[in-house]
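Good morning N.,

You mentioned wanting to compare the apo and holo forms, so I went ahead and generated the holo version with nicotinamide-adenine-dinucleotide. This is what I fed in:
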Amino acid sequence: MDLQISGRVAFITGAGQGVGRRIALTLAEEGVKVAVNDYFAERAEAVVAEIHAAGGQAFAAPADITDKASIDAAIDAAVAALGSIDILVNNAGVTVERRAKGGMAPTFLETQPDDWEKILDLNIWGMLHCCHKVLPGMKARHWGRIVNIMSEAGRAGEARLAVYSGAKAAMLGFAKAIAQEHGRDCINVNTVALGAVSHEGIKAGPLAPDATPENNERLGKMLGAYPVARGLQRLCTPEDVAPIVCLLASDRAKYITGQSIGCSGGFVML
Ligand SMILES: NC(=O)c1ccc[n+]([C@@H]2O[C@H](COP(=O)([O-])OP(=O)(O)OC[C@H]3O[C@@H](n4cnc5c(N)ncnc54)[C@H](O)[C@@H]3O)[C@@H](O)[C@H]2O)c1
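and this is what came out, ligand included:
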């Protein structure tokens, strides 16, 4: 199936590694011109080099998405290099609430406002900055796709990830409201909810790519929590996520908006 997005321009936040990197590579394979954002310029540039090596078009747009001036300038530079942004993927996010305490993340009462700030800044303020910047152009061109990468913690709630759960739930509520406001502009806004995802950027623990149920007891327990993982005997990878995001970013998804699609092996069933 041709997704009919070749030639479109995408801006993907936090695309220097992990889920965002794979979304960038996969959209580029579909002929999309990809602006690769990351806080770390060298990560963004490395992904751009991968896309160029595969024959695609890409531009490194490093910026701190929590800083409005920084992300505005990066989006302006991406537009100058590739063209107006048709597709925004709000991917950058923090996965853990705080340093583990004796192997356990803290409960809400064990955290302090300083701990909440980074989670809220990145997952909420970063998304608001990016949406506010690209929506006027999408509206003017009467076409746009926004995909928010959230977590099943946001749909079901997860103990010891209270602030993260709340921040990710906010991404969903915001997406639904924007989907209502901009349906008339043919701008579709959806979220993809992830469970645990293993990828190359994670160096230790059950989500590290070299973890196995034999060398990591926690991974064995986690596999049991995901119906699909029990069959595949592995956790989700970015390769499982990227095609879903590409579909939602495409013209094929013109009648899907305001939805949250779980890509978590049945961890949450709504
Ligand atoms: N990996 C998982 O298990 C998992 C589970 C559920 C949801 N998610 C969500 O999926 C998304 C991607 O997760 P991941 O594991 O690939 O993340 P990651 O932490 O591996 O990569 C995120 C990238 O974002 C960049 N980044 C961080 N702060 C930034 C900022 N202020 N501005 C711009 N870039 C910034 C980082 O440098 C990094 O390269 C996140 O929204 C996360 O919450 C991940």
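DSSP finds nine helices and seven strands in the chain.

Happy to go through it together on a call whenever suits you.

Best,
F.
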